[in-house]
Write a structure and sequence with these properties.
mainly alpha, globular
C-alpha cells in the first residue's frame, strides 16, 4: 500500500513509512486506553465496547479510501483513539467470570482469539487487496475497487465488525455493578429473538414470568437478613442500596497508587515482548 503511493523508490524508506503506520495505531491506543477505562466506569462496559467496534469500523473505511500517507496515518490513529476495547474487555471478563477456578480458561480465550485474528487477518487482507488486478473477471477496470485497491479487505472487516456490533447489542449484558441492573432494550430484543427462534410457547413464557416473580419474592426475603448472612461474592442477587452508595462514594484511585511496582514491571515486560 505504501509503495502504491509513490512516495519514494527506496525500499528502506518504504519500510520506515510502514512502521510509522503501524506505530500510529499503537501510540494512539496507548494514549486513550486509560481514558476509555474511566469512561467505562462512568457509563458502563457495554457502551464502550460497542463504541470501540464502531470506531474501528469508521477508521477502516477511512483507511480503505486513503490515497496518500497522511490519510493513512490519520485513519490508523483514529482507530487507536476510538478503540479502548482491550483494557475494558479484560475488566468485563473479570466481572463476568467470578469463579476463580473458571478464570484461567476465560482469560486464555482472549489471547487465542487475538492470535487467530493476527494469522487470519493479514492473510485475508493480502488475498483481497487489489481485486481489480488479482480478480479481473470479478472486478472490472475503472470500478470503485480499481480506484481504491485496498478498500475491499477493509469493507470485509467492517462487515465482520458490524456482525459483532449487532451480536453485542443484542446479547452482551452490562457487567458494571452500578449499571448492570438498568434496562437494556438491546438485550430485551435479543431475548425476544431467541424465544422466537427456540419456539418458546406462550405457556412456557407464562411459566418463566411466574418463576421470575417467585425469584423476586425470594430475593426480598433474603435481603431482609442481616448483612453477615449475605455473600455478595457468590450471590447473583442485586446489590443493596448501601452497596451502591458505597460504590458511588469511593474515590477514584490515583495514578500513584494504581501504578504499583508489580504493575510497572508487567507494563515493561509487555512492552519488551511487543
Amino acid at each position: 500500500m505504501i509503495e502504491s503511493f509513490d512516495i519514494t523508490s527506496d525500499s528502506n524508506q518504504i519500510a520506515i513509512y510502514a512502521g510509522l503506520v503501524t506505530s500510529s495505531f499503537a501510540l494512539a491506543e496507548f494514549s486513550s486506553s486509560a481514558v476509555w477505562g474511566r469512561v467505562s466506569d462512568r457509563v458502563g462496559r457495554k457502551p464502550v465496547l460497542l463504541g470501540g467496534l464502531a470506531g474501528t469500523a469508521v477508521s477502516m473505511v477511512m483507511f480503505g479510501f486513503a490515497r496518500n500517507l497522511p490519510m493513512v496515518l490519520v485513519g490508523r490513529a483514529l482507530g487507536g483513539l476510538l478503540n479502548g476495547n482491550i483494557a475494558v474487555l479484560q475488566t468485563t471478563v473479570a466481572e463476568l467470570v467470578t469463579a476463580k477456578e473458571h478464570q484461567p480458561r476465560a482469560y486464555s480465550i482472549m489471547p487465542f482469539v487475538w492470535c487467530l485474528g493476527s494469522v487470519l487477518g493479514p492473510a485475508l487482507g493480502g488475498a483481497l487487496a487489489q481485486p481489480a488486478l488479482n480478480y479481473p473477471s470479478l472486478f472490472a477496470r475503472g470500478s470503485l475497487f480499481d480506484a481504491y485497491p485496498f478498500l475491499l479487505p477493509n469493507l470485509v472487516c467492517v462487515c465482520i465488525l458490524g456482525c459483532g456490533l449487532v451480536i453485542g447489542t443484542l446479547f452482551l449484558k452490562e457487567t458494571h455493578a452500578e449499571h448492570k441492573h438498568r434496562r437494556d432494550a438491546g438485550v430485551e430484543l435479543g431475548d425476544w429473538i431467541l424465544k422466537k427462534m427456540m419456539g418458546v410457547s406462550e405457556a412456557e413464557g407464562t411459566k418463566e414470568k411466574a418463576d421470575v416473580k417467585d425469584a423476586g419474592e425470594l430475593e426480598k426475603l433474603l435481603m431482609e437478613h442481616p448483612p453477615s448472612y449475605r455473600s455478595s461474592e457468590s450471590s447473583g442477587l442485586r446489590p443493596s442500596m448501601s452497596d451502591v452508595r458505597d460504590l458511588k462514594s469511593r474515590r477514584p484511585i490515583g495514578s500513584g497508587k494504581a501504578f504499583t511496582k508489580q504493575v510497572v514491571m508487567n507494563i515493561v515486560g509487555y512492552g519488551i515482548m511487543a
